[in-house]
Design brief:
The structure is a single chain. By secondary structure, the chain is an alpha+beta fold. Helix content is 50%, strand content 13%. α1 (13-28) runs parallel beside α3 and α6 (132-141) packs antiparallel against α7. The mean pLDDT is 96.
């Protein structure tokens, strides 16, 4: 088996597209050797805990270009056949708690289903994944102990762990997401097409 470490943030649209493409490749190559691990990387770590209005965040970040900021990702999504439901997204959440949930899901072997659910909740359903109730429901749907997750979210449990892991990622030179590290050696960045992942899997199999 080969480790595929993925640095991602569920509010990153390119991470959503990247996972959709990776999923297609893994479905097409069901005998793939990858063991997926998701690692925290907050795009907006300075957001207040309650997040902020999405329109206000776009204006603060992109200024006069805010209305055009989503065009590249929308074009990429259309080309890839991936649905983005941007009109119903009203909040830009702080994702610290989402990353804490992913950390706990990793302990239970449920990281990938939880990341899938976080991405769907935000990009397809427009849900605020900074809200405790949303995270608890995602945890429950993935088979985690919802009551325990609720109790943990009410504390600072593993907050320092997430921040240290992200600091370590930046120290390793990771500056954007999604970033994939294959076998702790090869770095692949961005929302790569499914055909690239299938090619990589085929080359590994041939070797």
């Amino acid at each position: 088996m080969i480790a595929l470490d993925i640095f991602a943030d569920p509010v990153c649209p390119w991470c959503y597209l990247a996972k959709a493409q990776l999923d297609r490749a893994l479905e097409a190559r069901s005998a793939h050797p990858f063991v997926l691990s998701w690692h925290p990387f907050q795009l907006n770590p300075t957001l207040p805990p309650e997040g902020m209005d999405c329109g206000a965040w776009l204006r603060a970040r992109f200024g006069a270009q805010a209305d055009q900021a989503d065009l590249p990702v929308l074009e990429a999504a259309r080309a890839a056949g991936v649905a983005l439901n941007l009109p119903i997204i009203t909040r830009m959440p702080n994702t610290l708690n989402a990353h804490r949930l992913l950390h706990w899901a990793g302990i239970e072997g449920a990281q990938t289903p939880v990341m899938s659910a976080l991405l769907r909740a935000y990009w397809r359903d427009g849900r605020d994944i900074g809200q405790t109730e949303v995270l608890v429901q995602i945890a429950a749907d993935a088979g985690l102990d919802a009551a325990m997750i609720r109790r943990l979210l009410a504390t600072e449990a593993d907050t320092d762990t997430i921040r240290l892991r992200e600091t370590h990622a930046r120290e390793r030179g990771i500056v954007s997401v999604p970033t994939f590290i294959l076998d702790n050696t090869h770095v692949i960045t961005g929302a790569q097409p499914a055909r690239l992942w299938m090619q990589i899997i085929d080359e590994i199999a041939a070797a």
